[in-house]
Design goal:
GO terms for molecular function: metal ion binding; phosphatidylglycerophosphatase activity. By secondary structure, this protein is mainly alpha-helical. The protein has one domain. Helices cover 63% and strands 0% of the residues. Helix 2 crosses helix 4, helix 6 crosses helix 8 and helix 7 packs antiparallel against helix 8. The N and C termini lie far apart (80 Å).
């Protein structure tokens, strides 16, 4: 007879022995939501994968960032204070979202978890949000588009290249905090680089 304890464990419960993170240089299928997941876990899972933007087998981080950027576009129109508050809340709650999604997937920091990319992308857009709100006269449609593209490129650069302290956070921190912190730091570095580039352009080519 089959022992009663031979049944596989319920994967909706956190497991400290997560599988290793897949090789992001290869195509990887997004780990499915476990059977029997609660409605709350289903909602968290879909937030974790960026409402589906992190599902592509290749470059899910880039596609997830694109998804976060698309969501940010209407949020930018709500004003700097609102956008700032949303970004801070996304960064704080993201620790739990990413940690729980990682538990559901049984993989630590699976590349298909892209809520951290959303938060990092939004952080890099904070200076642009300030300009939209308080200095709109300096922002034409073409400059608006260029500013968004610049923020996207800078964030992806720092997120992929992982200079310190991004690399330190990625390798030393664990759980949801570890998943979030490297992208938060990449977003902050992209924010600073964005400001330096824009200030340099303004110095030589006043708007």
């Amino acid at each position: 007879m089959t022992p009663s304890n031979a049944n596989p464990p319920n994967r909706t419960e956190p497991d400290m022995n997560h599988n290793h993170k897949p090789d992001i240089r290869k195509a990887n299928v997004c780990p499915p939501l476990p059977k029997g997941a609660t409605a709350l876990d289903k909602g968290v899972y879909w937030l974790g994968i960026g409402l589906g933007s992190g599902l592509p087998k290749r470059a899910p981080g880039t596609w997830g960032t694109v998804g976060g950027l698309i969501v940010a576009l209407p949020l930018l129109q709500l004003g700097f204070i609102t956008f700032f508050m949303v970004t801070v809340m996304a960064s704080i709650v993201g620790v739990w979202i990413c940690g729980r999604t990682s538990d559901l997937m049984q993989v630590h920091d699976d590349p298909h978890i892209v809520w951290d990319e959303w938060a990092g992308m939004w952080i890099s857009l904070l200076p642009l949000s300030f300009i939209i709100t308080y200095l709109p006269q300096h922002l034409s449609l073409s400059l608006y588009g260029a500013a968004i593209v610049l923020a996207f490129i800078l964030f992806r650069f720092f997120d992929i290249a992982k200079p310190n302290p991004v690399k330190w956070a990625d390798s030393k921190l664990s759980g949801g905090l570890g998943i979030m912190m490297d992208d938060i730091l990449a977003g902050i570095m992209a924010l600073v680089a964005w400001l330096m580039i824009v200030a340099s352009v303004e110095m030589f080519y006043p708007l």
